[in-house]
Amino acid sequence: MLAYIVKRLLIMIVMLLLVATMIFLMFRTMPGDPTASMVDPSIPREARQALLERYGLHESLWTQYRIFMRDLVQLDFGNSYFYNRTVLRVIGDRLPATLILMLTAMLFAYTFGILWGAWMAWNRGSRLESVGVTFSLIFRSAPTFWVGLMAIMLFSVTLGWFPAQGMRTTGYVGDSFAEVFLNRDFVRHLILPAFVAGLYFLATPLLIMRNSMLEVMSEDYIEMARAKGLRDRSVLYKHAARNALLPVVTAGALFIGAAIGGQVLIEVVFSWPGLGREIVQAVTRSDYPLAQGIFIIISALVMFMNLVADILYAFLDPRIAYR
Amino acid sequence: MLEVQNLSIEYTTEDGVLKAVDDVSFNLQRGESLGIVGESGCGKTTVAKALLRLLPENGAISGGRVLFHGENLVGKSPDHMRRIRHSKIALVSQSAMNSLNPVYTVGHQIREGILAHSNIGRHAAHARCVEVFGMVGLEEKRLSSYPHQLSGGMKQRAIIAMALSLEPDIIVADEPTTALDVVVQGRILQRIRAIQRQISTSMIFITHDISVVSEICERIIVMYGGKIMEQADSASFFRAPYHPYSLGLQNAFPSITDITGEELVSIPGTPPNLMQEQPGCRFQERCPFATSQCRSRTPPLVKVKSNHHAACWYTDQVNDFRTRARNRDTWEAVRTRIEQQETPQQ
């Protein structure tokens, strides 16, 4: 098992270097150059040239790549052109907000999705099953920004239960992590966007769980569990759901990896100061270091969560042994 | 102890109603072992599942009674049935390979069954697991194995151990050895037989293999097309069967005791379509001795000797049938007849 994990981590490093190369080239081949967004286009040529030299953008592509990779292996992502701060710091500022939002939404979606999905398969053909499928698919297909706006209209404007936007009430200043995130004001702001995002995510665990359950329920060991005189609840959750959970775990682990990128639309609609909005802005501003940094970190997380999913598998399914 | 009276079971399918079991009656004494034989689709597994009320959702008992210690199980509440399952009537299911949940250890699964019906505590339950594992000849350390770590024979024995764990009144064994190779099968059958005698539990043994029944059952029921064709003491049946279908079955299986190199003769044709109404004998289409009466009227189960019943109109001609059934040509004639019947329709 340990040897397997080490092997996988080594493969991950190689993959990441390849991904970094691709990301590097991707931004360099994109039209536009970073100076355009940093300074007025009407400034003299020389000034622009000086700026390019300052950021090393006048060097050949190869030299730029060598410097980029050399810094990367030292985990140095450079400075953001726009913020003039290190990339890691910018990401560090935005990441917690996104992660908290996404993980809350995920917790909501996966808890309900798994339980409801299992229940739906068990009561196949019932009214609540079709309601569940329709409900989850509606929120999967509806544009999240529209659902978000409707939720704001209903819960913030009409009912006035939750604030419409932002992460905290204007004027509130917190310095430490605890001051910023661990208070009621933050939780009140969190509920609505997490709920809307959760509704959007719900369909995945719900439908995967349902299908996987239907498959498992035709297995002989389910009949055996019944023949043993176990209670329905026990057969459903202990025997059927436990086995049906495996594909959901994969989906969930990959989801965490992707969640770091946030849901741009949700973050925009709810003015959530997260990483998702930052990515879009970094790309439109041609802020190469920031965009590269964010993309590389997202890739690393997706790969890492993949590995976590595989390891979790070994714990959930004793038939799987890694060598 | 168990009395099945006029049991009928129907499956509702998209194409209509399938009468899987029709008017089946038998009883089972304490300590007795009863074999139910028949080919696939004859309704034998359906009977087994109906006893435990574990029919699939589209199946339902449409008539008859299942009296267990005088209580009718048909119509009992799901919770009442749940308590009877495993503790009073235990199932050894058809596919040992897949009847154990892959994510729990074998010991856990046996213990779980014990704890669902008694409150003896984990410790005593574990002790019971060790005990039943001993009875089926598995080592104690195997209790902590996962199903995939066991061989097919071991899994089958674990399932038998599971069925024994609460000393049920009846063990229903549905093709328990079909998935195993012949050598292992023989050994397991011997063990089942020995244990069954030792703890004097009753057993219903469901199989398509008539030779298995001859080895371990005291009584036999031959089913065909959802009905009982013949019911008898094993000794009497294997000495001299009465129903033409039984005669055909005897030809189709090699005898374990005399290997004379005789060629096996199979029964031509296929079982009847149970979606259609069957006016006559279920077997008439494939029976070499069928007459017009067989085609129009269903023969009742009649007594031919003490403890021996057969559902055939012509039990008095059985001596003649026996001689002719041994002849390959008799069955070839049926094949020709069936082929002729099919041709004009095309």
Written overview of the protein:
The complex is a heterodimer of chains A (323) and B (346). Chain A has two domains: 2-73, no CATH class; 93-316, MetI-like (MetI-like fold, Orthogonal Bundle). Helices cover 75% and strands 0% of the residues of chain A. Chain A is built from 14 helices and no strands. Chain A is globular and about 85 Å long. The relative contact order of chain A is 0.15. Chain B has two domains: 2-224, Rossmann fold (3-Layer(aba) Sandwich); 241-345, no CATH class. Helix content of chain B is 36%, strand content 22%. In chain B, the strands form two sheets. In chain B, strands 6-7-8-3-9-10-12-11 form an eight-stranded mixed beta sheet, with helices on both faces. Chain B has a four-stranded antiparallel beta sheet with strand order 2-1-4-5, covered by helices on one side. Chain B is globular, with a radius of gyration of 21 Å. The A-B interface holds A 219-221, 223-231, 234, 239, 242-243, 316-319 and B 52, 54, 82-87, 90-91, 93-95, 98-103, 112-113, 116-117, 146, 148, 159, 162.
